[in-house]
Amino acid sequence: MSENQHSPLIMRLSSEHQLTLVGEGLLVGAFGGIIVTLYRLSLSFAEKMLRAYITAMTGNFVGIVGWFFILILICFAVCRLMLWEPYTQGSGIPQTDAEVMGRINMPWHRVLGTKFIEGTLCALAGLSLGREGPSVQLGSMTGKAVSRGLHRGRQEERLLVTCGAAAGMSAAFNAPLTGVLFALEEIHKEFTPTLILSVMASSVASDFLVSQILGVKPVLQLIFIGNLPHSNYVFVVLLGLVCGVFGALHNLGMFACQEKFYGKIMTCLPYTRLAIPFAMAAFAAFLAPDLMCGGDAIVEIFQTSALLPLGTIVFLLIGKYIFTTMSFASGAPGGTLFPLVVLSMLVGELYGVVVTQFFGVPNSYVVNFVVMAVAGMFAAVVQAPVTGVVLAFELTGSLDALLAVSIVSIISFAIARSLHVDAFYEHLLANLLGSTPRDPDKTGLAGEKVLHTYYIGAGSMLDGKRIRDIVWPKTVRIVAITRAGLDIIPRGDVQLYAMDELLMIMSAEDEFESQKWAHNVCRGSIKPRTTSALSSTDKS
Fold this sequence. Notes:
The chain is mainly alpha-helical. It has three domains: 14-214, Clc chloride channel (Orthogonal Bundle), CATH 1.10.3080.10; 230-433, Clc chloride channel (Orthogonal Bundle); 449-522, 2-Layer Sandwich (Alpha-Beta Plaits). Helices cover 65% and strands 5% of the residues. It has 20 helices and four strands. It has helices at 3-13, 15-57, 61-84, 93-101, 108-125, 132-149, 154-173, 176-188, 193-214, 233-268, 275-287, 296-304, 310-329, 337-358, 366-382, 385-396, 402-418, 424-434, 511-522, 532-536, and strands at residues 449-455, 476-483, 486-488, 501-507. A four-stranded antiparallel sheet has the order 1-4-2-3, with helices on both faces. α4 (93-101) runs antiparallel to α7 (154-173), α8 (176-188) packs across α9 (193-214) and α10 crosses α15. The longest helix is centred in the N-terminal third of the chain and has 43 residues, at 15-57. It is globular, with a radius of gyration of 24 Å.
């Protein structure tokens, strides 16, 4: 291996370079926080303009007709922008995943400007979309911009893209820990000290800037009266079951609408599918304005009203889900996480009203069920239960009901998994990769090497084996082993054990396949080990 191929490893192991990455994470967080703050202000202004127009023109025939013409113009503008930059379709989180994986190469300058404008226009039109998906993409492209400005390599660029994603999520929800967990659990899918520190620095810097401009109040200002007595925890368990089923239905409905309904429209008339959610927005503006935009109007109802009637809750729940599904599945540029939070609150409110009216639970505990449902639905839909628990507490600013929220999150996650429903963003990523060339950026990768860290799981295919007994792909080599804080030279007679940290170097040209192999052989299992993957992968 040549000296220039050794240099990434030397830099990776250098403590000075690790500190540099933390500093670059702070830089990405600062710029990402500024951009996402401007994006949130832009969305807020657009929504205020929308509601002011609706209020002024209600009952005015000319104003209503004018609204239809305005929506036609906005729809046309968004379609043209999406045609100009296709990577801005949808939430942007699957695109960020694919960018970190090295499967796509987004033009950061085009995506930043286009996504910002598209999201603002969709908010002005009232589509039921959230801000967090676009915020993640805007943050990730900020990380890429910083990387290009500092002339960093491919490996470091992916780390800064992950930092940007964390900054975007943190700024969208005023939730720095959620940003960290989401970036590590959903985007990068690696846990190394340098990565964690860099992502934390970026997320905290972003949250600090946002809080200085928009304030430090939590997104959901819900007040706990007290913790639910343990004698009523049977209702906590049942809520976990309900959230698991509702989360699975949420995903199935979204996937079916996107693939079976809009998929046919895309084949015949590309991009005209946006006409459907825009038409729904035209009627919702004057018939059910609370269903429009991300859901801030419904959150305000929760924060200013007592218990809602069952009929109102059911109407808002069904109406919001249908409008969100039709908006997001169309490919319109916007997210689903904040609408998901609103839907979760409605599920929790519905459940709380039922158990208080029919099973004698005091009304004061309905707010507890609302917060539990937020964590449970997130765990079932995204299938990231730890992030769901942290998100629920950062959104409310309270650590009350930790045990109950954790129970609901675990049960709902288990139910969704047992129903064999795909995790939301993993499914969207699979669809994106299925329609994307294998490696659009491969032409400049000849001879380039990348580094990845893996931990050997208990019962995995590598656990207990010597290095020489493993059939390694030609594109993968171990360059360092860390065991209980001690560095071990990776010679052929070294035996690998569970919890060993492996630093692997891979060919950038075959990185995707190499990562799949590494994840497979390092994944822990309680089942008896098999060596089939070791002997059948990349022997040629």
